Sequence to fold (394 residues):
Amino acid sequence: MTGAPRARTAGRGRRPGPTETREAILAEAREMFADKGYDGTSLRAIARAAGVDPALVHHFFGTKEGVFVEAMRFPVDPSVVLPQLLSLPRERLGEAIVRTFLQVWGDADRRAPLLAMLRSAMTNERAAAMMREFVTSALLGRAGAAGDVPHLNIQAAVGQMIGVMILRYVLRVEPMASASEDELVALVAPTLQRYLD
Amino acid sequence: MTGAPRARTAGRGRRPGPTETREAILAEAREMFADKGYDGTSLRAIARAAGVDPALVHHFFGTKEGVFVEAMRFPVDPSVVLPQLLSLPRERLGEAIVRTFLQVWGDADRRAPLLAMLRSAMTNERAAAMMREFVTSALLGRAGAAGDVPHLNIQAAVGQMIGVMILRYVLRVEPMASASEDELVALVAPTLQRYLD
Fold:
């Protein structure tokens, strides 16, 4: 990796446009997250690798979470979705989480990168570490800080949703695959509610 | 595929021993399950492909489930484990299921083939179909026949366990990865119990 943005047109000396710079930053970020994990990567190091000022990375993506979400095409930005969920009355949280998962996983374009990451994590320890660190820091750190719910309970709730999503959208087992959103809310929301109460 | 068992030593004309014949049957079964799915494969067709009598396949493996479990190295034989679970008093079922999952997934050798199948199912529709059909027929058919629990509820319970297993053994997120068996029973068994009551 040289210090120069990769998107620069070789030999022309033309300054890269904002789109090219953005893509160059994301390419460096993708490589760095895969190589050093989520915790081992900083916004500053990504900027250095892409040959740009850290302020520009901040300007484009806000936080490290934001860079990760874009670079890995992670289909949800926890820094956007979690505050929304946590602003709800506690007793509506179970239902809101079920509907959020169904919305994200029900969209094949958003599901695909998530499944790709999960597949990698199943054979590759580095990929597992990256996902583990992102889940821990961006998701649990934020959710835990906002409430008094033990992390183990949050993980049981997330586990419930991951498993149901795999049965519904990957294995497509019936009747789970064809159940309506309301049926799944009625079935699963009380479970989440119990974990989070 | 010729009609002769693959394990026969080429050009020697020697009769294959029981171990070789068993392996030859499993090799044909593996190919046939992957190619035609679980529902599209019969004990008779496996026998034909392996060039042996169906009675011999039955003698070695009992049922089609038994062949699948051996051929795919599926770490649990539903025809053994489900009757054990279903013989328990209903109110102990939640705990027993949690402990069974932890026992199977906690063993790296039993976890590996399961993860391999799950990975394949994430990218390959044939692999997904095979796993879906096996889960539906061998697991849900059996569990549903024995009780009055709706399939959707059984799947929500299985989903809870799959998700927790992925967080604990694949992503190894803390504190889930280090939680004791008893902690997980206390956390998750009431959820399963609710689905199955």
User: Anything to note?
Assistant: Chain B is about 70% helix and 0% strand.
